[in-house]
Please model this.
Amino acid sequence: MNRLGRGIIAASAVVASGALVLSGCSAGSPEAETGEPGGVTTVTFAASTFGDPGRGPLLLELIDEFNTSQDSIRVAAAAVPYPTFGQTILTQMGSGLGPDLIRFDMPEFASASDAGLIHPLDDLIDAGDYDLLKQPDQFMVHDGVRHGIIFEASNYGMFYNTDLIPEPPTDYDEFVEIAQSLTGGDTFGLAFRQTEAEEAGVWQDIFNYVYGFGGAWSDGKKLTIDSPENLEGLEAYQALYDAEVIPKGADAATFRRMFAEGKVGMELNNGGYVSATKGQAPDLNFSVAPIPFPVRAQGAILAPIVINEASPAKEAAATFIEWVLEPEQQVKLQEILGASSVATATERSAASLEETPFLPVFDELTETSLPHVVLGFEAMTPDIRKVVVKNVIAALQGEQTMQEALDNAQEEASDLVG
Amino acid sequence: MTAVQAPPEARGQGTMAARPRRKRSPLGSRWTPFLFLAPAVVFILVFQAIPLLQQIYMSFTKTTLLNPTRSEWVGLDNYAWIVGDPEFQRTLATTFVYVVICVVGSVGLGLGLAMLLNRAFVGRGFARALITVPWAAPGIAVALIATWMLNAQYGIVNRLLDAIGLGVPGGAILDSPTYALPAILVTTIWQLFPFTSVVLLSALQAVPQELTEAATMDGAGRWWTFRAVTWQVIKPTVGLLALLMTIWSIRRFELIWLMTRGGPVGATETLVIDLYSQAFESQQLGRAAAIGMVGVIISLVVILASRMVARIAERKDAS
Model:
């Protein structure tokens, strides 16, 4: 073999190696995902709830039902675990890839929307055709542009063990009194998240104390982290921590198991957790009441369904959203989601109400529930959350007073938002 | 005169033209080394060199996770932010404390254990096998088990500490800014020291027995025998281990992240935790890249310093 021939072999090896390495980069491109054999457009739909033990299989059945009803569109479910959902999907979307349809949580929805990664729905779906619940739906529209439709809205209520607490507390003093009286041995009156390792969870929990005492993270234009109402709410949170009526150091998974075992009397949680609690402890006697704080305002997990700006199958994706919004599917979705609400007002079935009599409690909280974002600074919520939680935890650990914590958080967060 | 017979190959040269010429394999050409090296070179270029260059560039830009392709050149702003941020200085200090204690603890404990295991005793083989278990356990499993052991309500560590009157107030060790870092350090060293002890055990077994015996016969005590004989043999291995432990400790992520996520109140936030947090929580890729560059520089300094120390030691030994 001459020199030229040998050179060709060497060059081919280099090119082949490079091609092998680089070929992996195009496998996940939108074009690859929506290859259309037989004229069928495949739409990927990513949601963490597909992996839920109770609701996941039922949601997949609903998707199968859609697929059966269609000739040219097929929705493929992609279950991404909740703890890494936002990060995984946002990283994909930032790279111009990712699923066509996404069920987001609010902070990630706000970030993606702000970065222009979500396709506006106004041209694809006429929201006026549907009787959307106004309170949660208002957060789907940014600067007059609709970016999402509510897929699930879970309001926060007070879960309590009816064997331990026959009558739920109706005001804050009673709440504290019951928490204290139940605490003893390995049983605790209350449980909430209080470790930095669960930053997002702590944010959701303290949200109820802030808004339940008349506070707010912002007035829509400037941050109000250090307001007197916020201080009052967070001092109440700290007082419960110091009173040792909670299992300190226990993460949510641990104290929810304790609740299921009857070792925790009360916890503030969202409607989405009703099915999980029933699944975990079918024999547990528990109910739900409004959170007995001075002001009826609490957090809500709002989960919009959105279309990826990079999706090559936007119209097919919109067809699925429209199908889900039909009254018949809304009722089905409502039944699957249990204590959560859906985009439109639906009637709960007699069977559901018989099985879970406290479902209307969640429905009645819809008008006073707010998503866990800083209004006016939605896209900056993850950064503000980090600052606030870090300072509140420092106060719990005695590193500073709650007043100092909120002053520091106000200053640091104001620097961040500019 | 004796006729010198030519070797068979030379003898055959005159008839070369008559025989069919043997084809040389392309694998015997001067391109062969390049051929074999090509996949490795491509791999290093694609997965290390190009990302490193991209990271250097990114550290001078404002790039967000949500719009990684739309970056804005900001010069030294990210580095200025790092230098001016008191929390980053605390992160560096925590990283330094974590690395130093990890290295000293794992190598020191590993050496002690290796010396014990180097002695003859009943069940030595079993003990040597047993000691590797923490190293063999996956990091995630170790972190989760340690978190459970340190749990304020059910953790065995709290119960033991309470029993001997040393209980942490409230019991939440991992939530205490004072005790979280020591708890992570103990867990890290527990996982690392089997590795160092196995490596050092193999080094100890290379110590010539006759030298140790000669030193003993010359009246040297245990300490002097160790210093004059054993240490001289195992020194390069200790140096290599210290370097490896340093680099691994600088980049350790999963154990700290799973146990505390850098908290409470930043008490366990090391360089890589800060980098991850900036990149994936605050979505600031430019700042994360600058933090990563600080890590790269620290690692390079450590490697260069260890080489210098090794060279000085070699010269000293030679003289």
About this structure: DSSP finds 14 helices and two strands in chain B. Chain B has two domains: 53-84+284-319, 95-270. Chain B touches chain A at residues 23-24, 26, 29, 31, 34-35, 38-39, 41-43, 46-47, 64-69, 151-154, 170-177, 259-266, 277, 280-283 (CB under 8 Å). The beta strands of chain B are 61-64, 67-73.
